[in-house]
């Protein structure tokens, strides 16, 4: 049930390869996603499924040996000012105006995502001035305002602090302020709370939710935590081995998951209403290395509902963007 | 920060003390004492010294007292600037050394700066363009630089200069200015002659620093804060220089601190080959002639100046590293 | 886990010891592997030095002074007959001094396994067999692959024999540094606290002293009356006085890291003695690091000895080392007349390069993440 709200970003059949001596590895295998203004898209999957890589590929921050092979990333699709990010020079002016300017990125590790050699003010002001054309004093005022907005107490003194002088929670708030520096319409948060403790995690999520709503931003929230998804997302894309395997509005996904992988993921989340002392379900096996991608449906070796003679040979139909469904023979796409 | 400075100063003092003890050991090592050597030296000249006179001299220099007392007496005189008399030159040691000590330092410091200015850009380039042709060339040259001991390099350059250019490439001054008092012309002459020995000395250190810079920068480039900076939308070169290079600079600067003693060491041997008027040739002569006060003083002064150089570069490092600078503050 | 004939590569990795894993990783560094071969080759030369030498490295002959390098011609009139040119006396028209120069018209055959000067193979078996040379004919003839020095000694033979001292002094020095390094680094890492602080400061002090002046001072103080062997050991000792610090640093670092490892704590909880923990559990897991550090320390030792001997303060003739050979090349006038004296620099550079590549490869293999 996706609202007919404005598309701000479309990812179409994005394919990313890693070319190494040992061979080429397909890390993203045709990812398609849509971001809408004022909505939160949750992207969920186990580690190594290509969530973070998708985020970096959107901003053209995939480094060698990684390479975008095909597919499109469109900013403002359909609008007159539509920009094809995948067609831009990854080092050029145009893509740099998008980075931070139109799309802000928030990172997982607030400790290592900030340089220890400059004050947080220096790092935020740099981001502001890279896009705004503000003077030094004005940029500093704006940085203080931003720090205030993300809930950092005494921002006018904290602005001159170094990252190592702040707690983890405060550092992640600085990370958010940094991403907001140039007032982007799109925010990509790559596991923003994974490195934080539970209480701080809740505060940061609440902050993100509030900022996203008040600024009517499109938020792409990458996480492996189904709890975070339930709390934050409007729509959910489930990824497995470089592919989106299921897409659905959040209630729909939790109420009636279509893909066996999604069902397995949901079963492995602890539930307060579950039978006490019952064993938590796990997904058998581990995510295969993209190098040794199984034939047919990539999930078939771990799938409890595998159809013998079919899943291992045939590819299940791919998902159309923005359309509910699962890439699985059990679930008719778009049903 | 004050604690850090204090600790660093204390360490420098301890090092100086250790060097002074070692120097004293070196002075005392040859069989017989200073007076024996002095008498032997006079005997060569035809004059002789009576046993009484020898005893009196021993007493005057405190050589009849226990070793620790001798060390104390010696160190007190050294602190007052009295380093004793050179037996070979029959002049106070300080006079014999003269400008040579400063020239040694000039060569070493020039080599240090040369090392920095060459190693920094090459190291950055090598890391930023890893596995490019330039990187391979830099790496190969680096290994060769590491493998050719600097005295061998000096030797080969001397030979090539002599063989193909027909000139003697050694020395720090033109022959007509070598004995002249200091003037602008002489200072300029020094500037002209300094690059060659500085290059010879700098090669091995440069190779080492390029490797350190490359390795550190490669580590830093993989860190998330680089991605953060790029995601801000600032230019690639600005990102590179402001963030990872800045971070990789710390190990670079701190390894320079160990480089300085190494350069001073190297300058001794290179000076001998290139015939530079530094303390190197003087030290060798003094050691061969067992002129121990002269040799000891050179070792002592070189050691102390090196410790000073290392101290300065460590304090610099502290200044550029905010985490150390802000230690102890809230 | 049972070992079956169809052991997969994964199982092979799972069963491998730390050292085996290190070795496999090492084998991926092609340059390091080649360097290992080069180093092995040089140590073979060390073992068979006298057998490979052509002429007695100590035998002087004023008539052979400064003969340029000669190549061996393999064919004579299209037939396999390796030979070199003989020498003939030429009187200098100005000085009337008799000098010897190659005479291409006279061919001296080169033969394998000839009898030459007597020596003890491996220091034990008396023999006079050499790999190749000329039959004892005219005393003046010989093979001078790298020419001769002022005293008419064959540089190739001297270089081969010099390898023995130059490379063994490195080993002896490293062995000594290693003892100091493991002892002090081990104590430092094992006990920590004040002991650690003191040893760490000591290392910093030693590292900030310029080494060459210090070595020169110490080496010059060795009595002239000492024998070659005594000087050899004294020089080894002097060089290792400085170079133990790096080894101590590595050992301490590993000790500190390993002390926190679960398997060490488990062994402690199981009541194993301190010594047993160190020997049985900790030593094997940092052996590869130590091997890497050693191979990086060796070239430093070799250069140190070469520098000291070059200055005339290290080993003294009649001992033959690379540094002593290079000492002859110190004077640029001599060098201009006899550039082949610089040949002694070639093995120095090759060996140092090889040890550096080897050490780098070993270090990467021992510690792929750090």
Descriptive report:
- The complex is a heterotrimer of chains A (335), B (330) and C (370).
- Chain A has 335 residues and is an alpha/beta fold.
- Chain A has helices spanning 51-58, 93-98, 120-132, 136-149, 155-158, 168-180, 198-214, 226-232, 250-255, 260-267, and strands at residues 7-20, 23-36, 40-44, 66-75, 83-84, 103-106, 186-190, 218-223, 235-240, 243-249, 325-326.
- Chain A has one domain (7-102, 184-326): Rossmann fold (3-Layer(aba) Sandwich), CATH 3.40.50.
- Chain A contains 10 helices and 11 strands.
- Chain A is globular, with a radius of gyration of 20 Å.
- In chain B, α6 runs parallel beside α10 (195-221) and α8 (150-165) crosses α10 (195-221).
- Chain B is globular and about 85 Å long.
- Chain B is mainly alpha-helical.
- Helices cover 77% and strands 0% of the residues of chain B.
- With 370 residues, chain C is α+β, with helices and mostly antiparallel strands.
- Chain C has 2 domains: 50-153, no CATH class; 159-365, MetI-like (MetI-like fold), CATH 1.10.3720.10.
- Chain C is 58% helix and 14% strand.
- Chain C has a 4-stranded antiparallel β-sheet.
- Chains in contact: A-B, B-C.
Q: Which overall shape of chain B is indicated by the principal axes computed on the Cα atoms?
A: globular
Low-confidence stretches of chain B: none
Strand order of the largest sheet of chain A: 6-7-8-3-9-10-11
Kindly report the average pLDDT value of chain A.
Answer: 86
Keywords:
heterotrimer, A: alpha/beta, Rossmann fold, seven-stranded mixed beta sheet, four-stranded antiparallel beta sheet, 29% helix, globular, C: 370 residues, MetI-like fold, 2 domains, 13 helices, elongated
Which helices and strands appear, and what pairs or packs with what?
The complex is a heterotrimer of chains A (335), B (330) and C (370).
Chain A: E1 7-20, E2 23-36, E3 40-44, H1 51-58, E4 66-75, E5 83-84, H2 93-98, E6 103-106, H3 120-132, H4 136-149, H5 155-158, H6 168-180, E7 186-190, H7 198-214, E8 218-223, H8 226-232, E9 235-240, E10 243-249, H9 250-255, H10 260-267, E11 325-326
Helix pairs in contact in A: 3-4, 3-6, 4-6, 6-7
Chain B: H1 2-28, H2 34-44, H3 51-60, H4 67-79, H5 93-97, H6 100-128, H7 133-147, H8 150-165, H9 184-193, H10 195-221, H11 224-231, H12 236-274, H13 279-288, H14 292-320, H15 322-325
Helix pairs in contact in B: 1-14, 6-7, 6-10, 6-12, 7-10, 8-10, 8-12, 10-12, 11-12, 12-13, 12-14, 13-14
Chain C: H1 9-15, H2 18-27, H3 30-47, H4 49-52, E1 73-76, E2 79-91, E3 98-121, E4 125-134, H5 155-191, H6 193-207, H7 211-220, H8 228-259, H9 262-269, H10 274-311, H11 322-327, H12 332-337, H13 345-366
């Amino acid at each position: 049930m996706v609202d007919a709200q404005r598309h701000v970003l479309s990812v179409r059949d994005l394919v990313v390869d890693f070319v190494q001596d040992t061979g080429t590895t397909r890390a993203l295998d045709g990812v398609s996603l849509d971001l809408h203004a004022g909505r939160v898209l949750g992207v969920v999957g186990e580690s190594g499924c290509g969530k973070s890589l998708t985020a970096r590929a959107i901003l053209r921050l995939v480094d060698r040996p990684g390479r975008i092979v095909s597919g499109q990333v469109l900013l403002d699709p359909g609008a007159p000012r539509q920009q094809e990010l995948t067609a831009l020079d990854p080092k050029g002016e145009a893509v740099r105006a998008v980075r931070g300017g139109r799309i802000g990125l928030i990172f997982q590790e607030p400790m290592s995502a900030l340089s220890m050699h400059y004050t947080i003010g220096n790092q935020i002001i740099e981001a502001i001035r890279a896009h705004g054309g503000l003077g030094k004093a004005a940029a500093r005022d704006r940085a203080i305002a931003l720090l205030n907005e993300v809930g950092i107490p005494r921002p006018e003194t904290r602005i001159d602090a170094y990252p190592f002088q702040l707690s983890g929670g405060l550092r992640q708030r600085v990370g958010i302020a940094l991403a907001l520096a140039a007032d982007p319409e799109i925010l990509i948060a790559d596991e923003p709370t994974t490195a934080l403790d539970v209480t701080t995690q809740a505060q940061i999520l609440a902050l993100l939710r509030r900022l996203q709503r008040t600024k009517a931003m499109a938020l792409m929230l990458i996480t492996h935590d189904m709890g975070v998804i339930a709390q934050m997302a409007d729509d959910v894309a489930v990824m497995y081995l470089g592919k989106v395997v299921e897409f659905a509005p959040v209630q729909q996904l939790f109420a009636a998951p279509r893909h066996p992988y999604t069902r397995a993921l949901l079963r492995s989340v602890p539930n307060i209403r579950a039978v006490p002392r019952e064993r938590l379900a796990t997904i058998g096996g581990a995510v295969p290395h993209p190098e040794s991608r199984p034939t047919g449906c990539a999930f078939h070796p771990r799938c409890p509902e595998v159809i013998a003679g079919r899943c291992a040979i045939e590819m299940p139909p791919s998902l159309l963007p923005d359309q509910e469904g699962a890439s699985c023979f059990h679930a008719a796409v778009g049903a | 920060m004050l604690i850090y400075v204090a600790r660093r100063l204390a360490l420098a003092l301890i090092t100086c003390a250790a060097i002074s003890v070692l120097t004293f050991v070196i002075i005392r090592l040859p069989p017989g004492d200073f007076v024996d050597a002095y008498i032997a030296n006079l005997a060569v000249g035809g004059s002789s010294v009576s046993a009484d006179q020898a005893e009196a001299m021993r007493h005057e220099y405190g050589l009849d007292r226990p070793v620790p007392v001798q060390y104390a007496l010696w160190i007190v005189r050294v602190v007052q600037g009295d380093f004793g008399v050179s037996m070979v030159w029959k002049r106070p040691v300080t006079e014999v050394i003269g400008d040579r000590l400063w020239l040694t330092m000039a060569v070493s410091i020039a080599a240090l700066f040369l090392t920095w200015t060459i190693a920094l850009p090459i190291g950055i380039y090598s890391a930023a363009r890893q596995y490019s042709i330039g990187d391979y060339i830099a790496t190969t040259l680096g290994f060769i630089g590491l493998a050719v001991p600097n005295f061998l390099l000096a030797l080969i350059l001397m030979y090539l200069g002599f063989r193909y250019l027909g000139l003697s490439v050694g020395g720090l001054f033109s022959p007509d200015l070598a004995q002249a008092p200091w003037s602008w012309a002489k200072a300029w002459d020094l500037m002209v002659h300094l690059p060659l020995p500085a290059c010879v000395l700098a090669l091995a250190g440069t190779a080492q620093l390029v490797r350190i810079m490359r390795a550190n920068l490669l580590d830093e480039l993989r860190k998330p804060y680089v991605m953060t900076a790029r995601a801000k939308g600032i230019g690639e070169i600005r990102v590179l220089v402001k963030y990872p290079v800045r971070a990789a600079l710390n190990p670079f600067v701190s390894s320079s601190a160990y480089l300085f003693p190494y350069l001073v060491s190297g300058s001794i041997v290179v000076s001998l080959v290139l015939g530079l008027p530094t303390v190197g040739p003087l030290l060798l002569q003094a050691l061969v002639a067992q002129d121990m006060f002269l040799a000891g003083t050179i070792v002592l002064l070189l050691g102390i100046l090196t410790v000073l150089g290392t101290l300065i570069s460590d304090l610099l490092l502290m200044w550029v590293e905010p985490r150390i600078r802000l230690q102890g503050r809230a | 886990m049972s070992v079956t004939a169809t052991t997969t590569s994964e199982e092979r990795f799972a069963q491998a010891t730390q050292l085996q894993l290190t070795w496999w990783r090492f084998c991926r560094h092609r340059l390091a592997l080649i360097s290992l071969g080069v180093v092995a080759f040089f140590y073979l030369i060390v073992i068979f030095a006298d057998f490979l030498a052509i002429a007695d490295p100590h035998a002087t002959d004023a008539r052979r002074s400064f003969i340029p390098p000669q190549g061996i011609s393999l064919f004579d009139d299209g037939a396999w007959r390796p030979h070199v040119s003989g020498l003939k006396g030429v009187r200098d028209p100005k000085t009337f001094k008799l000098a010897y120069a190659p005479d291409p018209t006279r061919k001296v055959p080169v033969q394998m396994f000839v009898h030459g000067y007597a020596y003890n193979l491996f220091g034990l078996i008396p023999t006079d067999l050499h790999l190749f040379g000329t039959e004892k004919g005219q005393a003046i003839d010989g093979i001078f692959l790298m020419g001769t020095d002022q005293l008419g000694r064959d540089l190739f033979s001297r270089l081969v024999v010099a390898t023995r001292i130059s490379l063994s002094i490195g080993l002896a020095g490293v062995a000594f540094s290693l003892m100091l390094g493991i002892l002090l680094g081990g104590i430092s890492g094992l006990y920590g606290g004040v002991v650690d602080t003191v040893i760490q400061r000591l290392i910093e002090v030693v590292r900030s002293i310029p080494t060459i002046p210090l070595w020169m001072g110490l080496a010059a103080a060795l009595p002239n009356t000492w024998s070659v062997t005594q000087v050899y050991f004294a020089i080894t000792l002097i060089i290792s006085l400085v170079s133990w610090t790096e080894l101590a640093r590595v050992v301490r670092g590993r000790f500190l890291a390993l002390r926190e490892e679960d398997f060490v704590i488990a062994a402690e909880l199981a009541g194993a003695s301190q010594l047993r923990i160190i020997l049985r559990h900790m030593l094997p897991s940092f052996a590869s690091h130590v091997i890497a550090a050693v191979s990086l320390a060796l070239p430093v030792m070799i250069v140190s000895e070469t520098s000291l001997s070059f200055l005339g303060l290290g080993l003294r003739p009649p001992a033959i080392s690379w540094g002593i050979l290079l000492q002859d090349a110190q004077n640029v006038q001599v060098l201009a007349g006899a550039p082949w004296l610089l040949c002694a620099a070639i093995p120095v550079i090759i060996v140092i390069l090889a040890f550096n590549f080897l050490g780098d490869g070993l270090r990467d293999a021992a510690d792929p993440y750090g």
